[in-house]
Specification:
With 264 residues, the protein is an all-alpha fold. 52% of the residues lie in helices and 0% in strands. The protein folds into 2 domains: 183 residues, Orthogonal Bundle (serine acetyltransferase, domain 1), CATH 1.10.3130; 43 residues.
């Protein structure tokens, strides 16, 4: 086809597959594929047993579905729609659907507006179909690859701004898309070209905490706490030793003391 190697617009050759083709053939590998699919499509959210699609999983394992159709089915489940369509703002839903299906953020506000118009006219399933059946999905993932976040690199047809956008959508690799709120993260950046801050989760200031232990002594409140605990523990231990000693000496006058404390 006389196409040069390297990055290119997928419109130049929309059905030329550039990924490494791999078809899972054993149950263990398919389990890995299924876990990866749930993790990516559901935005790193924990998926409970009643939220899994046993029918889709069974069809994939029996060879009646390829990975592409499995992804399509997961994105159309009621649990996905309740989390990332009905439960969020329209712009947020679109940016998440692009992330979960195509592995990238929307490239422009026009792309978001077109997707919202498609949803309004034909429903959410039509948007999922348009992404899964797109030439871009075919070129990047084909039939047997689970989608993944791919805007970390300079892919053909993407501006470097998409690195910042995927970083803003991800924020961290141990948080879920559901925990990041229901409002759009990219709206102002896509619509007005404003700067896009990347929020990172708050971390514990270990340096600040350790600095308070100046001179090898803990803060006053911590010192009071451990002194109180030590005092109570010493009193309890001392009482036990006295009780054991009297028992050894045959003195039973203290036997009623524990019962008296209990009101017996």
């Amino acid at each position: 086809m006389r196409l040069g190697t390297g990055p290119r617009e997928h419109q130049d050759c929309p059905h030329r597959v550039t990924f490494d083709r791999f078809s899972a053939s054993d149950s263990d590998t398919l389990d890995v594929v299924i876990r990866a699919a749930y993790r990516h499509v559901f935005g790193n959210c924990y998926v409970m047993a009643n939220e899994r699609s046993d029918e889709l999983e069974s069809q994939l394992k029996e060879g009646r579905l390829c990975v592409r159709e499995f992804i399509r089915g997961l994105a159309k489940t009621d649990h996905y729609k309740s989390r990332f369509f009905a439960g969020v703002a329209p712009n947020r839903g679109v940016e998440l659907t692009y992330k979960h299906v195509l592995g990238r953020p929307p490239l422009s506000q026009e792309e978001v507006a077109g997707s919202i118009a498609l949803q309004a006219a034909s429903g959410f399933d039509a948007l999922v179909d348009s992404l899964v059946d797109s030439a871009e999905y075919t070129e990047v993932f084909g039939d047997d690859t689970v989608p993944y976040a791919r805007a970390w690199t300079s892919a053909g047809g993407m501006s470097m701004m998409n690195f910042v956008r995927i970083a803003a959508l991800e924020q961290s690799f141990n948080s879920s898309d559901r925990a990041k709120g229901s409002s759009s993260i990219l709206l102002n950046n896509l619509a007005a070209g404003t700067s896009l801050p990347i929020k990172r989760p708050a971390s514990v200031d270990y340096v600040g905490i350790s600095a308070r232990w100046s001179g090898g002594k803990p803060p006053a409140n911590y010192e009071k706490l451990w002194r109180g605990i030590a005092l109570v523990g010493a009193a309890h231990l001392g009482g036990m030793m006295i009780n054991v000693t009297t028992q050894i000496l045959g003195i039973h006058t203290l036997d009623r003391i524990p019962a008296m404390f209990l009101g017996l």
